[in-house]
Design brief:
It is a single chain. This protein has about 45 residues and is mainly β. It has one domain (about 1-45). Helices cover about 10% and strands about 30% of the residues. The protein is built from one helix and three strands. The protein has one helix at about 1-5, and strands spanning about 15-20, 25-30, 40-45. It has a three-stranded antiparallel β-sheet, with no helix packed on it. The chain starts with a helix and ends with a strand.
Length: about 45
């Protein structure tokens, strides 16, 4: 997330949220994803 912010991507939340299946999730704003909402998922450690 920090790297995306440095590269000027727009995130919907500044910190990851808890998602399904014990994953952390974050979303890129459609303006940063060619008009698509992009979900980023990471396994919790």
């Amino acid at each position: 997330i920090e790297r995306l912010q440095k590269d000027e991507f727009i995130l919907l939340h500044l910190t990851p949220k808890d998602g399904a299946d014990n994953k952390r999730i974050a979303f890129l704003h459609p303006k940063s994803g060619l008009g698509m909402l992009i979900e980023l998922c990471q396994e919790k450690s």
